[in-house]
Amino acid sequence: MDHQNILATVDNGVGLITLNRPKALNALNSALLGELCAQLKVWDIDPAVRAIVITGSEKAFAAGADIKEMADKSYMEMFSANFFAEANDTIAAIRKPIIAAVAGYALGGGCELAMLCDFIIAADNAKFGLPEITLAVMPGIGGTQRLIRLVGKSKAMDMCLTARQMGAEEAERSGLVSRVVPAAELLPTALEAAAKIAAQSLPIAAMLKETVNRAYETTLSEGIRFERRVFHAMFATEDQKEGMAAFGEKRKPAFKDR
Prior knowledge:
- This protein is of the alpha/beta class and 258 residues long.
- It is 47% helix and 16% strand.
- The strands form two sheets. It has a six-stranded mixed beta sheet with strand order 1-2-3-5-7-10, with helices on both faces. Strands 4-6-8-9 form a four-stranded mixed beta sheet.
- α1 links the parallel β2 and β3.
């Protein structure tokens, strides 16, 4: 696919998307989000891609949404276009695991894009924030809903109402990111994590992702019931038989994604 705002490569089962609007600190405009969503949809059905990493530059994962694109729009223009809905819905619906590798600024829409991924690995220079209130708006790609589920009400309110930025160490301590690494090790670490996922059974990974995400959508009892049903269903796969046989035989499993 031809892209103007992202770079996309595949290596050893891992798809890597690099946001590529350096002059705008990777600000998310409609063109970039359109290319990102299109690439993710292609990779979601491509058997050659088994896990995905999204990253930006050393200075900025994405410094926010493109304000120039939105500044003069009316309510009816935003409502009629259902602005940001496609990006949110498309990324959230991707079945393959997605890792956000975040260095530098992840602000506004950039923070929301990172939270749309399945987990975040942060460089030690990462800064997270939702400063939309300073523009007399609020987060519009799920930020108010996802942040509170990750860090709790108090920190979410603090970040949204005061526009305070959260550094990498606090982000890890608060549950926003899974781990923090030196900036120079960010991409290798994220790619290594993605390679470990890519080595597993693809349908099992997709079912596991769906089950973990179900915890945000339902009660504990319903979530456990869903988990149990999916767990039982996994015993209908060839990969389950292979995985357990390989364990017993002390060898590496050869999964066939079926």
